[in-house]
């Protein structure tokens, strides 16, 4: 058989259509979003390591580099070559999640690259207020090789270094801020083992704008291990503040984008969806992918608090606004005394 450009295109598009249909619950019960929730335990957003799904989408995709045409992007290499990539310092805390997902993807015959982005989108849809992320299927079944080390930004990196790395992957400073909405459902596990499970904001089960508010509160509480290059003083006992989040919230290149998301839930969701559509397809030509977004469940839970607020025990006077062109919005103060933030549940995938 002779492959012309046209017949190759038809073959590729037939394959991706099959994949997309295969991802639909009706066609393949083993690959339904619900089975995923049960099978690898992401029923409760922000609990245990359940947000690691969202983190994994980033760690796989961000290996893309404009300066290296052979770099993979969202190609599943973090899973296919987990013997190499899971040993990188930036990925060490994802190693167990990678293996759990890898087994599941292999059992269901789903290519790693698609599966990582699928799991991240399903996981995010399960958070209160969460986004319904776009999901495209049909990435190559196999990555060309392991991603090089040192491409995932780190919490001790300067803003210069983080923005340069993000720009090399195709993201503006504003888009970097948009992507960091994911830290609203995040906790730390490996940065300070004495505070395992410490959330990055007071509402780790909600995909809300509290993260953008609370990172701007004056830091007064040292982490249990004391401040280190990865950690800053936090505003509330039990909450963990990453040095990189602290700096990006205050940098002149990003401070206004940061502040612009405070109490703007629908804007934040919209921008996150757009930035994730880009992140999740890095290294692929979207023309050859199939839009399977309809397999991602509609987020079920709404936010407990419809608007952002200053956590109890703190006041508007504790806000450190670094955006010179707009004033920080006036937020209600949550009533009551200062309440320490509890860690998210122990690491568990089931
Ligand atoms: C751009 C700079 C970024 C830096 C420096 C950074 C760094 C980190 C670090 C150090 C942790 C804690 C890991 C641990 O101790 O378990 C973390 C958690 C997390 N990050 Fe990021 N991150 C960045 C961007 C992103 C992006 C773009 C996403 C997703 C699109 C993301 C999603 C997450 C999630 C969901 C968690 C929580 C994981 C869990 O709870 O197990 N991060 N990040």
UniProtKB/TrEMBL annotation:
Keyword Lipoprotein: no
This enzyme's EC code(s): 1.11.1.-
Gene3D superfamilies the record matches: 1.10.520.10, Peroxidase, domain 2
InterPro entries membership: Ccp1-like, Haem_peroxidase, Haem_peroxidase_sf, Ligninase, Ligninase_C, Peroxidases_heam-ligand_BS
Residues annotated as domain Plant heme peroxidase family profile: 110-327
Subcellular location: Secreted
Keyword vocabulary terms for this entry: Calcium, Disulfide bond, Glycoprotein, Heme, Hydrogen peroxide, Iron, Metal-binding, Oxidoreductase, Peroxidase, Secreted, Signal
Position of the signal peptide: 1-23
Sections of the chain in a coiled coil: none
Cofactor dependence: Ca(2+)
One Pfam family, short name: Peroxidase_ext
The keyword Secreted belongs to this UniProt entry's keyword annotation: yes
Cofactor binding note from Swiss-Prot or TrEMBL: Binds 2 calcium ions per subunit.
PANTHER family noted in UniProt: CATALASE-PEROXIDASE (PTHR31356:SF66), THYLAKOID LUMENAL 29 KDA PROTEIN, CHLOROPLASTIC-RELATED (PTHR31356)
Family: Belongs to the peroxidase family. Ligninase subfamily.
UniProt-recorded name of the protein: Peroxidase
